[in-house]
Amino acid sequence: MLSKRVVLTPSITGAVALALMLSALPARAQRMSFDGPWSVHIFADQGSCQGAAYRYGVQIANGQVSSQGSGADIFGRVTPRGQVSVRLRQGNQEAVGSGRLTRVSGSGRWSGASPQQQCAGHWIAERRSSY
Fold it and tell me: Considering only CA atoms, which of 116, 47, 125 is closest in space to residue 86?
């Protein structure tokens, strides 16, 4: 009888440990989620548009970045670790950017061009309240 108890105890302990680990996964995934509204400030550091600054609202849903009534077409993706790659089009201008987000902010670099100019710079982002 003792041997049955010894055999069952590790199984019960393992099942409890597995249940605890599985129940913690959604909370951890949710905690690292970047979904929601963000405000992105873009600064031109180089090129013919040096000194210019822009601000766009974007929405992240399921890791996909999209425009939020900004007048520009913005699309891209965010990995579960916060790495961002994005493309922005407005008229005949196009830019690409990359960087990293944390739960509340982010930063990175970008470069872009139009038929008249080439520019590059940096961006910073901050998460907006979703209510």
Answer: 125
Tokens of 76: 């891209």
Per the listing, tokens 């873009």 go with: 42
CATH number, domain 33-127, options 2.40.50.140, 2.40.128.120, 3.40.50.2000, 1.10.40.30 = 2.40.128.120
pTM of the model: 0.72
List, for residues 42-91, the tens digit of each pLDDT value: 999 999 999 999 999 999 999 999 986 778 899 999 999 999 999 999 88
Domains of the chain by residue range: 1-31, 33-127
Core vs surface per residue 93-130: b (16+ CB within 10 A) or e: bebebebebeeeebebebebbeeeeebbbbbebebeee
